[in-house]
Amino acid sequence: MKEDTAQLKVAIPLKVLWKAMSIDIRHITPKILPNIVSEVELLEGDGGYGSMLLFKFCPDVPKVTFQREKIVEFDESVHYIALEILEGGHLDHGFLKYTTAFKLTEVGEAETLIDMKVLYETKPEHNHVPGDTLKATFLYLRSLENYLLKTLP
To answer: Terminus-to-terminus CA distance in the chain, angstroms?
Structure first.
């Protein structure tokens, strides 16, 4: 498995960010990425470890209609969550395995450090540029930060 890692500091309190990225992910994602994700359906579970999510993409998103993901790691005590793509999405574009993990750490009252990691395996014929896996993750996190900043009291 290959691995891309990065860190990002956001101006959102840890508790607010954790709730948005874990418990509320299915409700918030279509709001923060309205031109990409039309709906997120909870297929199995309660939103915690083992839960299965179906991300439905907007018609304008090229070559992708859905992505089914499973929460494969979930530890609220250390604010760690990992989601593995099981079907669709990146797996339709040269990847054999694709897991995104987030570890949140409080940095003062109103900031959170996000350690992100993408573990992936590509098909032999797939020409992948290291670090490209993080582009979608950064888009998601920046969009989430902007949305939450507008909704914070």
So the answer is: 42
